[in-house]
Design a protein that fits this description.
It comes from Chryseobacterium taeanense. Residues 14-201 form the YrdC-like domain. This is tRNA threonylcarbamoyl adenosine modification protein, Sua5/YciO/YrdC/YwlC family. The protein is an alpha/beta fold. The protein has one domain: DHBP synthase, CATH 3.90.870. The protein has six helices and ten strands, in the order E-H-E-E-H-E-H-H-E-E-H-E-H-E-E-E. It has a ten-stranded mixed β-sheet with strand order 1-8-2-3-7-4-6-5-9-10, sandwiched between helices. The radius of gyration is 16 Å and the shape is globular.
Length: 203
Amino acid sequence: MAKILKIYPENPQENLINEVIKTLNNGGLIIYPSDTVYALGCNIFDIKAMEKLAQIKKIKLEKAKFSIICNDLSHLSDFTRPIDTSVFRFLKSHLPGPFTFILDANKSLPLAYKGHKTIGIRVPDHSIPHLIVEKLGHPIASTSIKDDDEIIEYSTDPELIAEKYDHLVDIVIDSGYGDNVASTIVDLTSGEPEVIRQGKGII
């Protein structure tokens, strides 16, 4: 059964964040809030956790396009090819924020991402994922939580999310109601921003 942790962005309790970190380091899956929708996350370096994430999404891991959640742009060089100054400035002017930026991947990607030519990078404007990544010491893999409802695309109520994913994840972070608009996906592989999916962020 998933453990529900009430952590609020204005005053995140360090002991609860530490519990999340311990779970991630032990191969656990978490549900966490962001500046857009609630999302599923795990340790990008734990292949078994990544496989569990893919199973929940009912896709094969090699075909999964899980975003990488960073707390700033310092991790970019770990996962992407060298970035032009103009592209870096563009990223810096829009992050943190409700965007997923598609960039050319380098050959040092974690095992679960091997063979991917591009990678989606997110730096949410939200203290909880920021703290998790900071304390973990590296980014986490992430995928949005969709709703089965035909009208509401994304689940916003953490209690209902916890009920649905009770036996699939280890921790659900309840941070109050989430948004129901996902991030805007922007492809930067050509050097010019191309909006792939219009979401919360405005270019």
